[in-house]
Structure formats: C-alpha cells, structure tokens
Write a structure and sequence with these properties.
The complex is a heterotrimer.
Chain A lengths: L1 H13 L1 H13 L3 H28 L1 E2 L2 E2 L3 H39 L16 H32 L1 H14 L4 H15 L9 H27 L3 H9 L4 H39 L4 H11 L4 H30 L9
Antiparallel strand pairs in A: 1-2
Helix pairs in contact in A: 1-2, 1-3, 2-3, 4-12, 5-6, 5-8, 5-10, 5-11, 7-8, 7-10, 8-10, 10-11, 10-12, 11-12
Chain B lengths: L4 H6 L3 H15 L17 E6 L6 H8 L2 H4 L3 E6 L3 H10 L4 E5 L1 H8 L7 E6 L5 E6 H7 L21 H9 L4 E5 L5 H12 L6 E3 L4 E6 L3 E5 L5 H6 L5 E5 L2 H8 L2 E6 H4 L6 E6 H6 L1 H23 L2 H8 L9 H8 L2 E3 L5 E3 L16 H13 L9 H11 L2 H13 L35 H5 L13
Helix pairs in contact in B: 2-14, 3-14, 6-18, 14-19, 15-16, 17-18
Chain C lengths: L2 E14 L2 E14 L3 E5 L6 H9 L6 E6 L2 E2 L7 E4 L11 H13 L5 H14 L15 H14 L4 E5 L7 H18 L3 E5 L2 H7 L2 E5 L7 E6 L8 H6 L1 H17 L12 H12 L1
Parallel strand pairs in C: 3-8, 3-9, 6-7, 7-8
Antiparallel strand pairs in C: 1-2, 1-4, 4-5, 9-10
The chains are: A mainly alpha, B alpha/beta, C alpha/beta.
Chain lengths: 339, 467, 282
C-alpha cells in the first residue's frame, strides 16, 4: 500500500485532477493513502472500464450497427435531455391551446366548467425515471406498512408463526414477476373507478414491487423480534410493561437493525424487479423505456438502452446508499449496519 | 398516378380539391369547435388510445400531432402496447378507450373466439401494408425456384410454390418449418395462410371446440405468434424461418441484412382491408359524441396522409420515427411509406399503394371486409361449425358500424373539412364492395355469398367440414 | 424480626424430551425484612431457578412464595431483578434505562421533576452520575452493572433479587462493586437475595448464606449465619478468625459434602435457567 500511495503522489504532480485531490488532503484531513483509496483507485477502475468498453464495442457488430461505445452513449444522454426540454415546450403550448379552447367554449356555453387536463404527450426519459422512482418508493413503503406489523406479530406469537411460516416460505422464492399477470387481472377486476386516482398500470407495478418487498421484510422483522434477548424480555416482565409498551419500548427498537437489513435487501431487489415488471407489463417507467427502445430497433436504440442501463445502475446504487445512511442513523447497533 | 384513377373518374378536380380541403383544414382547424353544436361536446374528453408499433398506426399519430384530436375537444394520450393480446385486454378492461386493432380482433372478440367482448369499429384504418419475409437461409433455397425477369431480378409476385420444395425438404429432414405471425386472428395470419395455401403448403387447422388453438392440425408450416417488433430478432435468433408482419418490420429485415421480403399483401390481395380502429360497444353507447369525434379526427388524419399525392408522407415518416410512435429509423419507415418497397437488398420497386390510408374509400367500414375475415376464420377452423350466409352478415353488421362513420363524415362535409367525393354515397351504400378479384390465386370474393367463397379453396374447410 | 418473604415447599419439575426433570425439591426458606441472603451452590443446583420463582419469571410446580402476605404469581417491580449480564436496553442511555423503570413504577405518583430527581439520585447512588447520558456500548462492564443496580433500586422494591450480579466482572471491578453495594445497603437497608459462586463475596456481603445441595432434586443444604459486625472492611476481615472460619465452613460444604463429580469447567447454571425459561415460553 505504501508503494501504491507514492505512485499516487508522483502522478498527482503531473495531473491537475490528482493535484486537486492532493489539495483535498490538506483541507479535509484525508491521508494521501485514503485519498488514493477513496478517489484515485475507483477513478482508475472507471477509466479502465471505459477503455475496455469502447474497445469491445468496436468489435461487436449487431444487426443495428456497432455496439455503442461510451462516446455514443454520452451523446444520447444529451439528446435524451434535449428531447425532454422540447417535450416540456410542447407541453406549454398544449396548455396554452387548451386555455384558449376552454375560454372559447365558456363564451358559447356559460355553464361549462373549464377543466385543465394534464399534458397528453409522451413521457420523456426523465419522466420515466421519476415514474420508476415514485413507483418503487410507494410499493416499498406500502410493503413496509404491512410487513413490519406482520413481522412483529409473527415474531412475538409462536402459534401465529407456525401457522404463517409455510405460506411465507412458499411465497418467498416466487419471483414477483410470476404474480404480475394475476395482479394485473385482479387490479383491473377490482379497481373500477370512472375517475381513478392513480393509473392501473401504476397500481400493477406498485403491487408487484410490494409483493417483492414483503417477504424479506416480514422474515427479517420476525427473526429480529423472535431473536429478542430473553433478558430483555424479562426486564419487560419485571417492569410489567403493557403489551403495547412492550412492543414500543423493547421489541421494536431491539429489532430495528434486522428490520432495516430487511428493508435494504428488499429495496435492492424491488428496484431490479420493477424494471423487469415495467418491461413485461409495459407499465410506464425505465423498464418500458428500455423495452420500447429495443422494439423500435432504430440506429440509436442500443445507445439509448445503454443510457438507461447506466441510469438504472446509478439509481440502484443511490437507493442502496440512502438506505444504508438511514439504517446507520436509525439503528443503535452499529456493528450490524455496516455493509 | 394509378390510385388516383377512381377519383379522377368521379371528378377531374378531385385531386386539387383534396389538396384544398387539407389546406382549409389547417386554417379552419382552430375554430372547428364553434360549428360542433349539432354534434354536441364529447362526453369523455380525456382518452387513452393504444397502438402497436407499426406504420399503419399513422392516422392516430397524425390526428394527435396535427391537432385533429384537440380540434374535437379530445385530449388523447397515445400508448404503445406490448402485443395484440395486451392491447385487446386493455380495451376490454377499460385501461384503453380505443385502439388500433387487427381487423379480425373485434370480430373474434364479439364472436367469442379468444376473449369475449362486444367491440365495434367505426373506422377502417388502412389498406395493405404487410409483407412476408423469409430468412436469408430460406431465401437462398427459394431463389432457384423463382422465374427471372429479363434483367435477372426475380419475377413478381413470388408465389409460395417456390417455397414448397424448401418446406418439403425441411419436413423430410424432420425439422419443423416454423413461421411467425402476430396474432391468431390477425390479418397476417390469414394472409400468410392464404399465400402458403395458394402455393400448396398447408398452414394447419384450428379446432377450438376441442381446445386446440395452436392452429397446427395437419400443418406443413407451423405458425406461431410473435409480437410485430420482435419479428426480426426472433428470426435472427433462428426460432422462425419467416414471418408475415406489417411495416416497418419487413424493411427492418432488409436493413439489418437478416432476411428478404418475398411478397407484399398488396400482391396477395390487391387493396385488402387491414387495421381498424376499435372501441367497445359499451363505450360507444356511453360516449356517442366522443366516438363520433374520434372518428372525425381519424378521417381527417387519413385524408392528410394521402393528400397531395402522398406529398405529406415524408412529414408523416418523420413523425412516426419518433421513439414514442414507431421509433424505427427514418429510412426504414420511409422505404415503404413513400410508395416504394425494398425486397432483396437493392431491389427496390415502386408500390404506390403499399400503404393506403384514405383513397379508395379505405376508411369506410365495409361489411364485406368483415365477412372476408370471417370466411378465413371458417376456412381454418377458428369457426368450427358451418354458419349461414345471414349469420356472417349479422355478425359483420354488429361489429362494423358505417352508421357512426357516416355521422362523422357528413358532419365533416358540412363543415367543409372534407368533400363528399371522398366517400361512398351514404344514401345508397349497402356496405358490400363489388365482387373483388386481384387475389394471388385469381379467385373472386363476393361478400354477399361467404359460403360459396369458402367452397372454392383447395386447402381449407368447406361447407359441411368439421375437424 | 418479621418474615418478609416465605418460600415454602417449592418443587420444580421441567418437562424435557427425555421425560420430567426434577430441578428443585422441597425448598423452604424464610427471609426477614432488611436481611441480605446469599444463595450459593454448584452449577446446576437450581439457585437461579429459585430466584426466578421468587421473581415470578417461573412458576413453581408445587409450593409457593409469599411476599408480604401476598402470594407471588407473576413478575413485578416490587421484586426488582439485577440480571447477571446487566440487561440494559442497548438503544437507551443510562439515564433512559433507569427512566423507563421509574416511569413505569412512579409515572402516576411522581411529578416530572420528581422523576428526574429520583433517576439522578439513584444514578448518583451507584456513582454513575458522570456518565448518565452514555449508552451501554459506551461504558465498561462494571458501569453497566451499576446502571442495572440503579435501575433495580430506583423501583424501590420490597426485595432486591440479584442473579450473580458481579459474575461477569474482573476481580478488581468486582471488589469495587461489592464495596459500593455494601455502602448502598448501609444506607437503604434493602432486603436482598443474591446468587453467587464466590465464597468471599457471600461471606463479605451476607447476613445469611443459604448453601444448596447438588441437583437433581436440589434443595437447601445448610444455612450459615454470618454475624460479622457491619460496616465490614475487606482488609480488616482478612485478619478476622471468625471470617476465616465462616469461609472454610462454606468451602467445606461445597467441596466435601457436596463435591461435584462433573467437570467444573462446565458453564455456570445460566444454561439451565435459560433452558427452563424457554420451556416456560414454549
């Protein structure tokens, strides 16, 4: 390591970026070694990846042309953003036209109550990112609202646990994608409303995400609860804590590390499953974007899919890190919350 | 231009009028709603319309992009669907208000073949537009069997006779000859079957009463369902040797260098009706004004697509190549949309009428068009029992709704947004086209006598047959 | 002296997969108010079981426990327990741990400021006022045990039950804790039952030492009165012949009369008590 860090320093005098990092050392108290490990090594890794990628891309010929290298993909990042801006301009024009139309109708038909309808144009890449994020978070939170109380009940009650366990064990390994057709049919049968609050497709994706989050959360919570230290149970008994207080003051805090581990696990899986579900069910979101681009088969399609792949990865990483920070903040047991 | 003849015969001024009408549309467009009193405002204004990524969805894209929907006070969201089944389910369960459909879909649904639901069609979306493509490997084996023209290029139309020895060779080697079509009741299924059967290749029977919906009974070529946009990649993967699909997925095979389109449906049956616009019967009953206004917007879009001697097509192609519509490259879509069709790489031939959206009364929902699909369903066993000629006519009249179309068209004529020359005489039209010729096997189709028509085929069920 | 706690004819039989196991048989013991009683015996002799029955954490198979004229049927704060491994809630600070107990016991009778005062008083008593707001993982083992004692004391129990409170501590810390405990006892004069393995500890702290015979079917073997004068000083007693005699009495009981044949390396009787608690829970 000491050898490696001197290499880092030597290079740093040559390259502006590295000398900038060297400045960081002075200001933030990072040692040169830690700077090397936290910044320089990952940077080298990314650069190496980009080089291998662009070299390999040159060699791969698909029926849609060469596999996109980093430069082409970067270009598509820009063009997707431009499309987003253009679409927003179109949306504004749409609202203006609508306003005029409403006003004109008001003149003819004074009883008419003007209504502003949402823009009907296409969802841009950025919109799709937003949709996927909202879907995954709402499915995840919904699952948490069901799974944590259920997990606590199962963890506390051996009878319930014995009764529910086989069901959980059987459903746990089922890919939520297998549920998707059933969810779709049930939602369309049950969720009938002339003016629905949320779209059915959103509900389908969200329930699929929820089903996927449910089991790891239930299992982790119940394990966390049932592995509660007997001495702590005895403390609670000696103090004669009521059932509610027992859960609130002893069980819940004691299980927080396990609950968060379960939540983090399920969020990671949920993100992956959501993308697949969106592809499969054509529900709005990043998955649909990927699938649409694949189906379009235009000369830009592969590069655009690659953009989506990178974005999906970055968001997945971001979600995991966010969960980890929340977990670290909320959990008393620091030993279990490191990754 | 060949396609203009029938119009010219009616009125020498038609072409210029068509141009004028479109120009007027653009000017009057903003104030259309003012004259909509008789028709009434739409009951439902926010609509979602589904489509499959195919160039023949163009009327929907154009109606949106050119503001024809908005002129009707309709705020339409257009959504690509994964496959025809998802699309149909979407319309049935109300996720979609209406959709670009295969002509066979509303008929089959109303009849109860597959999902049962009453779906109606007030608007026929186009004529022609499909092709049959085989992989390079099959093409190499077919090519020696095809007569050549003086310049050495294959003589068209290429018949399935050229494919027959290839299929026989595969069968004798014990290899199933797999081909793709897009849906059991799709135009493509019937066209592929028609072409194969005309060349003596048996495409197989269905027997839904025995629970067999694979359509493989007695088959020489095994046909299976693949969503249109996945056709090229499925063939590239070797799962199927050929397919019948709409554009741009035949041209895509040429561009990707993975296959050769051998025949267009224009050559199988000149000016065959193709996609329709479908809504549920319940939707129409609940929202009659909305349905009529949708039809108005689509008629205007179709008119725009064929106006100025296809002069708007390049702009249409530009729109269709957007990723939210068809999304394929401009060149690929333009290849078929602008009056040409590329067969073998470099063998580009003019087919002015490959995509017809408006001329030849293309958008009028003829009962006889519906009945042709029903005859093919009967021919291949999807309708397992004999039906009377009246049954065919009644079912066609339940699904195809020229009455809605007429209301839409007449109101447009009244507002000078189109002209009566472009439509059949609504007073006298009975919904049956004159007996049609121009089939690849030279048979004649008379929609008034479906059972007589079925009895003409060499391969296929005839009156009295049952699997 | 009046009897505060009466343990009479306790039998304890555990159901095990190999059939019933009699842990205790005919345990009788009376404890007077203000008395400090140690239970000593080999591992597995059922000391903890006795304590758990008194605490109400276990139910005797037959016989019963009467505290202040009332039969014990469930756990309660009037019989506060100091657990062997402190059993502090790891997510709460020392103050909050004590607070949980105080609020539970005095939440209705004391005002907010009184509660605060009372918590601080008890933490001062165990010399933990300087680290009140630290969490268990931030303080040493001895400090944790001090907080555990403060928590028990803060409940103002009628009897204080201590299950090998200093067993897990090193010798020096243990000596400190014993001195502290004597100091507190001097001040509060609580009634205490303490389980211990440590002969010196038992003699140093107790008014009486109850020596238990080996299990199965363990029971009270001998009872030794410790009439050493209080306050007791560890150094002075080391020279005291009476102390030496008492000490050897206990040793004799343990290593001659009740010599344990099994290996002594085996774990403390906590395994037995854990198993028994699981049985109860099941």
């Amino acid at each position: 390591m000491s050898e490696a860090s001197t290499v880092g320093q030597v290079e740093s005098s040559k390259q502006p970026l590295l000398s900038l990092l060297n400045d960081l050392v002075g200001k933030t108290g990072f040692t040169p070694k830690s700077v090397f490990q936290t910044f320089v090594l990952p940077l080298i890794g990314v650069c190496a990846f980009l080089l291998i990628w662009s070299a390999a891309a040159q060699k791969i010929d698909t029926s849609l042309g060469k596999f996109p290298g980093p430069a082409v993909v970067w270009e598509q990042f820009g063009s997707l953003y431009d499309e987003h801006v253009t679409e927003r301009e179109k949306a504004e024009a749409f609202y203006e036209r609508q306003e005029k139309r409403n006003a004109a109708r008001m003149e003819k038909d004074p009883d008419y109550i003007p209504k502003t309808r949402a823009y009907t144009g296409k969802e841009t890449f950025l919109d799709q990112i937003g949709t996927s994020l909202v879907t995954v978070m709402s499915g995840f939170l919904l699952a948490a609202m069901v799974a944590i109380p259920l997990g606590i009940a199962i963890g506390l009650n051996k009878t319930l646990s014995a009764a529910v366990n086989p069901v959980i064990q059987i459903f746990k390994p089922v890919s939520p994608l297998a549920w998707l057709p059933l969810v779709t049919m049930v939602v369309s049968a049950v969720y009938v409303s002339p003016d629905p609050l949320v779209a059915k497709s959103f509900l389908n994706s969200m329930i699929t995400v929820m089903l996927c989050c449910l089991w790891p959360m239930v299992i982790n919570t119940s394990v966390g609860v049932s592995s509660l230290d007997n001495d702590l149970v005895n403390v609670s008994r000696v103090l004669k804590l009521s059932a509610i207080k027992h859960v609130q003051k002893i069980v819940l805090p004691a299980s927080v590390p396990m609950i968060f581990t379960g939540m983090r696990l399920s969020l990671g899986v949920a993100w992956m499953v959501l993308i697949a579900a969106e592809m499969l069910a054509q529900n709005p979101g990043l998955g649909k974007f990927v699938w649409d681009e694949f189906q379009n088969g235009s000369s830009n399609s592969l590069a655009r899919i690659m953009v989506a792949v990178i974005v999906i990865g970055v968001i997945g990483f971001g979600l995991d890190r966010t969960m980890l920070s929340i977990q670290r903040y909320a959990s008393w047991d620091k030993s279990k919350s490191s990754h | 231009m060949k396609w203009l003849k029938p119009l010219r015969e009616k009125s020498k001024r038609t072409v210029t009028q068509l141009g004028k009408a479109v120009a007027m549309t653009a000017m009057v467009g903003a104030t259309t709603y003012s004259s909509a009193e008789e028709l009434g405002y739409p009951e439902k204004e926010e609509l979602t319309i589904g489509f499959i990524k195919l160039t023949d969805m163009a009327p929907i894209a154009i109606a949106y992009e050119k503001g024809f929907f908005e002129d009707e006070g309709l705020y339409v969201t257009i959504e690509a669907q994964a496959n025809w089944k998802v699309l149909l389910d979407g319309v049935i369960d109300g996720r979609l208000d209406g959709a670009h459909m295969l002509a066979g879909q509303p008929l089959a649904a109303t009849m109860g073949f597959g999902t049962k639901a009453n779906i109606i069609t007030p608007f026929s979306m186009d004529l022609n537009g499909n092709g049959i493509t085989v992989s390079n490997e099959i093409w190499a084996q077919m090519k020696p069997n095809i007569p050549k023209m003086a310049d050495g290029r294959p003589q068209h139309p290429i018949k399935a006779d050229a494919l027959k020895p290839v299929v026989e060779k595969y069968l004798s080697e014990g290899k199933p000859f797999n081909m793709g079509m897009v849906f059991p009741v799709s135009t493509h299924n019937y066209e592929l079957r028609y072409w194969l059967a005309a060349g003596g290749i048996h495409p197989g029977f269905y027997a839904p009463h025995k629970g067999d919906t694979s359509g493989h009974i007695d088959a020489d070529a095994l046909l299976s369902v693949t969503p249109p946009p996945q056709m090229p990649s499925t063939m590239e993967a070797g799962t199927i040797y050929g397919y019948c699909v709409g554009e741009p997925w035949n041209q895509q095979a040429v561009f990707k260098n993975i296959g050769v389109p051998v025949v267009t449906d224009y050559e199988i049956w000149k000016n065959n009706p193709e996609k329709v616009f479908g809504v549920t019967e319940a939707f129409y009953e609940k929202y009659p004004n909305t349905t009529i206004r949708l039809t108005r917007a689509l008629i205007r879009a179709a008119q725009w697509l064929d106006a100025n001697e296809n002069g708007n097509r390049p702009e249409a192609v530009e729109i269709l190549s957007q990723s939210n519509y068809v999304g394929a490259d401009y060149e690929v879509i333009a290849n078929s949309m602008t009056g040409t069709f590329e067969y073998e790489k470099g063998d580009k031939r003019p087919v002015e009428d490959f995509n017809v959206f408006f001329r030849y009364f293309a958008t009028y929902p003829y009962y006889s068009d519906a009945i042709w699909y029903l005859t093919q369903m009967r021919r291949w066993g999807q309708i397992s029992e004999d039906k009377s000629d009246d049954w065919y006519k009644e079912l066609a009249a339940k699904v195809y709704r020229p009455d809605i179309y007429a209301k839409a068209a007449l109101s447009l004529i009244e507002e000078d947004l189109t002209m009566s020359e472009f439509f059949p005489d609504f007073e006298t039209e009975d919904g049956f086209r004159e007996p049609q010729t121009h089939f690849i096997d030279n048979l004649v189709y008379n929609g008034k006598k479906p059972n007589d028509y079925i009895n003409q085929f060499n391969i296929g069920l005839k009156e009295g047959d049952r699997i | 002296m009046s009897t505060l706690l009466d343990i009479s004819h306790i039998d304890m039989v555990f159901e095990t997969p190999k059939g019933p196991f009699t842990a205790l048989q005919g345990v009788d013991l009376k404890i007077a108010e203000g008395e400090f009683v140690s239970l000593i015996g080999h591992s597995g002799c059922g000391k903890s079981t006795v304590l758990n029955i008194v605490a109400g954490l276990l139910q005797a198979t037959s016989g019963g426990v009467i505290l202040n004229g009332k039969e014990v049927s469930e756990p309660g704060p009037e019989r506060a327990v100091v657990f062997q491994n402190h059993s502090l809630l790891p997510w709460l600070t020392a103050y909050q741990n004590v607070e949980l107990a105080v609020k539970q016991v005095f939440g209705r009778t004391k005002s907010k400021s009184e509660i605060k005062e009372w918590i601080e008083y008890n933490l001062q008593l165990v010399h933990m006022d300087h680290a009140m707001h630290k969490r268990p993982d931030e303080i040493s083992g001895g400090m944790k045990q001090r907080v555990g004692i403060a928590r028990a004391l803060a409940m103002q129990p009628e009897i204080l039950l201590m299950d090998e409170p200093f067993g897990a501590l090193d010798a020096l810390t243990r000596a400190h804790m014993q001195d502290s405990l004597m100091e507190i006892q001097q001040e509060l004069n609580n009634t205490v039952i303490m389980i211990t393995h440590d002969v010196d500890e038992a003699v140093l702290l107790s008014d009486r030492i109850v020596m238990m015979s080996n299990g199965p079917a363990a029971t009270v073997g001998e009872i030794l009165e410790i009439n050493l004068e209080r306050p007791r000083g560890r150094l002075e007693l080391a020279q005291d012949p009476e102390y030496t005699r008492l000490r050897s009495e206990v040793l004799k009981f343990l290593y001659e009369k009740q010599r344990k044949v099994e290996s002594l390396i085996k774990n403390k009787d906590s395994t037995v008590s854990k198993r028994s608690q699981q049985n109860v829970a099941a």
